[in-house]
């Protein structure tokens, strides 16, 4: 299980310290001439999803701190690997960055050895946020929590289907895991990103999906889908009726991810430091922290070295999860 610690007051204070008290040496190492024009942030997923939302929330304040606009470019496809590969091949001059995530960087490179990029081809720049997850369902499903849904699926083999934002994405592996561990017969229905899946969830064409809370929250608040379980340690004020996984004895299904900024390998470290500092300044802003809190994303702000440790830790963890996952024909 991949879990993240909640953001306490000390962590917020740490962001403020990082943003306001960087050492003189760090300032001196930054490139004075970069950026001299707008910087492109490639989001390797369609507009409207959780990763896209994070990118658009940080683009303005990060661009302001950099002194040049941070321009979002959506390049979706193949579970985030098309856009990621494009950035890995880009010139390492700091003008093309990637909104990297657990799914597109760690999981994809573990699943597909033949990808045109590896983890090492994208340099960690800054860890923006952790993204807790939620299990959601078609509102017509009688189950009121994930435990009840599993029980219903056991009684009706082949009746239910689970959605994902594409084969071998985190939601796919989560659905595959809950099926395998409980002996369920459920059809996997992949979509081109999680946002299109909600239209079919709302009408019952598919029945359940795990997704980031930041993506799912608008659909839950509008009543188009219902929540079955959250991966957070406690119930959330935005949806107090949705139980936690731990309450249901299912905390081993608490897959969580992260979102950050990566750059092509060989990008000058002084440029990465400047992007990291700009993101830290943005994350220290009360308005952005409040936006993240409403959407249940946990701001982090770790720079290149600490972010690299997080990535390497998750590389090991996800390779173990993937090795234990059953293969599917779809």
UniProtKB/TrEMBL annotation:
InterPro entries, per database record: BUG, Bug_dom1
Any Pfam family: TctC
Keyword set, alphabetical order: Signal
Gene3D superfamilies tied to this protein: Bordetella uptake gene, domain 1, Periplasmic binding protein-like II
Signal sequence interval, chain numbering: 1-28
Alphabetized PROSITE patterns for the sequence: PROKAR_LIPOPROTEIN
Protein family (similarity comment): Belongs to the UPF0065 (bug) family.
Protein name as catalogued: Tripartite tricarboxylate transporter substrate binding protein
The organism of origin for this protein: Achromobacter aegrifaciens
Lineage of the species this protein comes from: Bacteria, Pseudomonadati, Pseudomonadota, Betaproteobacteria, Burkholderiales
